[in-house]
Amino acid sequence: MSYKTVYLFLCFHVVFVHGKQSLCPNIEKCGCRESYKKLSQVDCRGINNMTELKILSKDLEFMLIPVLKIRQCKAKSIPSNSFFNFSIKSFSSSCPFSNIDDDSLKQIDSLRELKLFTTEFTEIPTAVGRLADLRVLFVNDGKLTHVNMEVQNMTRLRELILKNNKIVQISEKAFHGNSNLKIIDLSENNLTSLSPEIFEESRNLKKVLLQRNRLNSTKGIFKNSNIQEINIRDNRLKSIDDAFKFELELEVLDLGKNPLKQIGPKAFDWKVRQLKTLILDQCELFSLPSMVFQYLTKLEKLDLSHNKLETISPEIFQALRNLREINLSGNEIRILGDLFTKNSRLERIDLSENFIKSCDSIFYGLQNLKSIDLSANQLEVIKKSDFLTTPSITNLILSKNNISKIESGSFSYLEHLTNLSLSFNRLMSLNNSLKNAPELEILLLKNNQFTEIGKNEFSNSPKLKRINLGYNSLTDIHGAFRNLISLETLTISQNRLTTLTRNTFSEPFKLKVIYASGLLPKVGETDRPWKTKINKSSSPQRGWWRGSGSLAEAIRRADEPGRKNGGKRKEGKSDDCVSNQRKGVVR
């Protein structure tokens, strides 16, 4: 039987290897891929001269190559006859081309996509501009400095990507013949200005990417009213007050990381009322006019993070009835009050890294709110009323505050809460705040001041999968994990626990990972490692103590299937006890 198996394997191996080689039999630098018994892609590596590819078309019997990719290439030119009799749909190359003969690409039948990376030429070659049927053109990561009118005749072009070059100038009529163009990516170049008419004739243009240039003016960017998404992030814009001269269909606008500092009250007027996403992060803003967003009634996402905002006018968001996500993190805000009372559709609020001391009325009436991030603020007390009217919350982050007290039942109304982070606070007790958290799965309590965990503290959270109690002062956990039948990961590192009984955990024992480094030793017993004889014979699920030492070995042994005696494991005495006798046994 074994001989037949080996013979069958060898047959399959020979058929596979032969089949793979037969597609490109005479080109050692190229490999071919098939899909549903048809050629799908040819990959070539180490090409030093493009003439090496001449034999490829003949070997493939002049069939259509859907995708040809050339990597790790040293070829610097494409001679005239390099692609004679080739039929390629998509050609991608990372060759350092500095010259492409004028007729070399025209010979390629069916070419629809051309992607050239790491090229050396400073202008788009004439050979590329003659590809009238091209739909997609990439010239990325190269040394382009100018774009004149080389692509004007490419009337079917839909996507033009000239990312990460050294472009300093683009002709006013560079894209005037490209009426089908939908996406232009000019990001990561050296542009300081654009011609006023540059995008005006591209009537189907929907997306323009200009991030990471040196633009100091919006001139020419907003003259095409059909554009739906514009990214001008990380430029040198100092004002946008007169940017919008015409009514636009613009839905997504990223102005982040520009030194705007101020925005006029009429900057976003009725001409941009279709906006759904507005990004204004890292703009050095220290104030905002109270009515600056009054026309943006369709806005769904607003990012004002990492500015210098200290106060925000109570009226500023009132018109944003469709707002679903707002980011105010990384500012200097101390008080918000009832800022969001008119934004009943809000689902995500990020207020992290501010100076907020109280949640009083901030979230009142936000029935659809699902995520709140209040980390890295100055909260001291969580009140029962703070989240009273936010029943849909699933994610609540309160870490890195000064919280020392949580009023009983503070989270009782959050029946959908799945993730709660209270790490890096001053808590000594949860004060029965989780008595109604049936969906809670992740609870992070790291770096607090807990000395013990009450027996019933987690009794109403049966779905808990992960608990982190590391870096506290725990001496007792009173069987708090006993009823957590879903618990998989537990962190109790850097505490004062000396013993864990088997009764600490649920039956069946589903725990997969325990992190327990740095637990203090029992007095007078510092020379022996942890010892245990946990009996897991009644629970077949695998689980282990992540780390080294006798405890890890004991649990692994308990997981192993029987080796002798009809599959039965030899049982020893069980004290159902884990005792720590030295520091750092487990990582």
From TrEMBL:
InterPro entries: Dev_Immune_Receptor (IPR050328), Leu-rich_rpt (IPR001611), Leu-rich_rpt_typical-subtyp (IPR003591), LRR_5 (IPR026906), LRR_dom_sf (IPR032675)
Polar residues bias: start-end ranges: 577-587
Keyword Hydrolase among UniProt keywords: yes
GO terms assigned for molecular function: carboxypeptidase activity
Source domain of life: Eukaryota
Signal peptide: 1-19
UniProt-annotated stretches for the region Disordered: 530-587
Keywords, alphabetical: Carboxypeptidase, Hydrolase, Leucine-rich repeat, Protease, Repeat, Signal
Transmembrane segments: none
Comp. bias regions, Basic and acidic residues: 554-576
The protein's name in its UniProt record: Carboxypeptidase N subunit 2
